[in-house]
Amino acid sequence: MRMHARYLLPIAVVVALAQIGVLASMIMDRAAILRDGREVVLEVLPVDPRDLLRGDYVRLTYNISSIPAEMFAGADSAESGIVYVRLKPGEGGIWQPIAARFGQPLAAAPAPDEVDIRGTTYTRDLENVRIVGVDYGIERFYVPEGEGRPIEENLRERTFRMAVAVGQDGTAQIKAFFDGETLIYREPLY
Amino acid sequence: MAGYLNTLRKDVMRWRTSGLIDEQTASAIVLDAETHHRGGFSFGSVLAILAATLVGAAILLLVAANWEAIPRLARVAMIFVVILAGYAGGALFMRRGQSAFAEGLWLIAAVAFGAGIALVGQMYHLSGDEADALLVWCGGTALAAAALRSGPLTAGAVLLAGAWMLYLTLESGRDIPLLYPLVAAGIWLVSIWTASIVARHLTLLSLMLFAGLAFIEFEALWIAILLAAVSAAVFAFAAFLPATADRLSGMGGGLAVQGLLGFIAGMSIVQFDLYEGSYFLLVAIVVFAAIVAALLAEGRENRALRWLAYAGFIYQLGFVYTMLLGSMLGTSGFFLAAGLSLALLAWLIGRIEKRIAAERPRRAEEGA
User: Cα(A40)–Cα(A86) distance, rounded to whole angstroms?
Assistant: First the structure.
């Protein structure tokens, strides 16, 4: 215990630096996706208004949040709940899903104008399922306290678009938020 | 544990007046108890922990408010400073022997770590990662608890682990983390190193919660039976090998209380599951018998266990009556039955207490 007491301050500093390191590495990971990730543009869909605002973020869904079951390749087990979806730019610059697979990325490498994005699903079995709901970890847009309501109102009136950065492993990261063609928010690196 | 000191002072006074011990021995005993009776309950440390909890909540809310007056990088820097200052400042207080302030500052630093995780999630608009965030927070807190030998941080790590387990289970479409007993075992090891009894109690409670949730998830009765059987074994271990049990768990009479609690919890699940079948009354008789057996085995020395046994007995009584007879008898019949049962209960408890009182002097004579 006496030994422990003598080294307590250095130990405490090491603990603090370890925790700060964990937080810093989280920030670095996200900044790396923003900096180096492929950019795809998605359409933000109107959300059931009751579910739109929870606390101080706006809940969002996208044109790729519901994937038709027939788009899934092979008979992979859905147990992991992880889904890879291949995107390709479509009409008006909005990226659309073209194929999907449970558990691992699609066998064929994506073409130069395609991007694989990773998401999670609650669907565990494709039988009798027509639509697979997929979350990509970009379904929330945090706003300063009390500023959620106006955004929610506008979302119901106009079409919004989201530029999303996709990392090497398919992790998605919100990059820029557009009201029609107008940029309303750009995520800084840090 | 001011209660213990008060009781001791009264006892010493009585021994002094009855001539059992002399004045010198009397004051020596009280002085010894006062100087050596550390740990336990201290208003200073309790208030320090409460203060730290409030400051921690303030930090969490400041992050949640997403206040734009402070640029987000400044908020990150602020969190980093609180973490560093909290851990280092706590270490300095601990070296000066002011453990209450030390634990309080460490707690604030650990909360700031969690606030930092939330802040990163907010900065980059992450969603769906709450369970992972709780697990990282729990890991960081357990690491700090082990490195700094902090009891309150160990208890904090248990609470975060329990929150993680609960979050995964209750969030629709996710599964109960089957690895939770391993996480609990890991934190138990930390609690041995940090000598945190509170953390062990919380760990056992969280394991009971885990068993209950696993039962709901899998609808498998054997999980509840396993909970009751393991708890009964823990109780038997604590009651019949008290010295070994205390050496291994450090929980004293608390281990037997947890054993009885787990047994009643497990058997209650069995009863809820079987309440329409013919086994219901059989299970109820087993539970009644077990409670009385627990009372006779351990109730003599263990006040907490005695109260738990009484509470469990009354709860069982209500349970059996509402489930088995409530639909058959009219309201007046129920009141009559309940009244007679309570009279029986009073008579039984009175008998047991008399027996406990009668055995005390006999045991003292045996000891002399």
Answer: 11
Residues of chain A where predicted confidence (pLDDT) is lower than 50: 1-2, 49-55
Place of tokens 């007679």: B340
B interface test, pick of A17, A23, A187 with most B CB neighbours within 10 Å: A23
Contact A174, A162 (CB under 8 A): yes
Nearest residue on chain A to B115, alpha-carbon basis? A23
Place B93 in a pLDDT band, splitting at 50, 70 and 90.
very high
Pairwise CA distance, residues A147 & A57, whole Å: 9
Q: Using a CB-CB distance cutoff of 8 angstroms, which residues of chain A are in contact with residue B72? A: 188
Name chain A contacts of B148, Cβ cutoff 8 Å.
Answer: 8, 11-12, 15
Cα–Cα–Cα angle for A99, A100, A104, rounded to 5 degrees? 135
Residues sharing a CB contact under 8 Å with residue B310, sequence separation 6 or more, in sequence order: B349
A39, A163 contact by CB (below 8 A): yes
CA gap A58, A60 in Å, rounded: 6
Is the confidence at residue B43, as pLDDT, over 50?
Answer: yes
**Residues 6 or more apart whose Cβ sits within 8 Å of residue B253:** B238, B298, B301, B302, B304, B305
Regarding pTM above 0.90, the answer is: no
Which residue's structure tokens are 């045996």?
A: B366
